[in-house]
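For the sake of clarity, the format in which proteins appear in this thesis is described at this point. The fold follows as a row of integers, each naming the local backbone shape at the matching residue. One such record is shown here in full, so that the layout can be seen directly:
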Amino acid sequence: MSLEQILAKHKIVPVVVIDDVADAVPLARALVSGGLPIAEVTFRTPAAKASIQAMKAAFPTMLVGAGTILTETMADEALDAGADFLVMPATDEALIRHALDRHAPVCPGVMTPSDVQTCDRLGLRLVKFFPAEPAGGLARIQAMSAPYPFMRFMPTGGIGLKNMNAYLRSGSVVCVGGSWMVKKEWIATGQFEKIEEKTREAVRALEEEV
């Protein structure tokens, strides 16, 4: 399956910030047990690379992406650690080309039609709409989809249990990214049972919508 197909299957991508690599495997276990064997590990901490390695070693079939990729060096480190895909907060053409040269599935961040146009020119069909709610939410996605009906979006930023299904009902949205079930303070304090519980809650909300 392509990255888009896998994301469409799970519908939610937990966006996680890991400060201590010791938390990586318990976090992965909580997500897998809760029904979401997928995560975007943000490259905002020194523990990110080792955390991806640990998660992939413990759960080889789990889809683990690297987020907040800002430079080619970060992209290389993430891919060398075993990241299955790269997520960027912006549309950086040189960085996207570098990722594509490494045959990496990549999801750049977009906010404007110009961003979408650049991604289209590079052959991409999946982009991250970020920050979703502050940038206009679903209405903006629908407006940008009019001239680009083939583009699929992963909105992230301000999305939670109460509004995720509104996004997912849109034919332009493949999945949503969020951290409401993997709050940084829960990870840092070892509240993995709570993370599993909140993950199950999110999956149930998806099932109830269907």
In short: The CA atoms of residues 22 and 51 lie 8 Å apart. The beta strands are 12-16, 38-42, 63-67, 85-87, 106-107, 109-110, 126-129, 152-155, 176-178.
